[in-house]
Predict the structure.
Amino acid sequence: MHDPVVKVVWEIDEAPRWYRSTLDLLGRRAQRPHAAFSMIGVHDAVTKGLPGEALNHLLGSLKSLAREEVLNALGISGRTVQRRKLDPKKMLSVDQSGRTWRFAQILALASEVLGDQADAEKWLSAPAIALDQRRPIDLLSSPVGTELVEQLLRRLERGVYT
């Protein structure tokens, strides 16, 4: 009989591209370039709290998205970002960590589907017909909206545009 919970552990070169890109956006892969990674490991990291430097790295990685729009999507204040710059080792809350991971994951997936991060950021900030003319970035402020954006990206990945 098989255990119903499967722990998938990837050596970084075996991991899906979106996963590697998510880690890169958060600066995590650079810190542990030869480590094995798993989604269970991500869960554990998020529930312990990502370090503030992960948020700083994500914000520093943006090409064209307005910082204020990203912070609104993350539900994180500019003041929190300033505090994390002063103390980058201080952990984000579980909620902030989860939203930071999820935003980076959506940006990485959009970059993969659309070709590069610059195009992904443009797509995130433009109204989408399939999202009732709403901008994907505006939907990232809730779990349901984030799921809608991911579903749309998965459809685009398969060539379904509506």
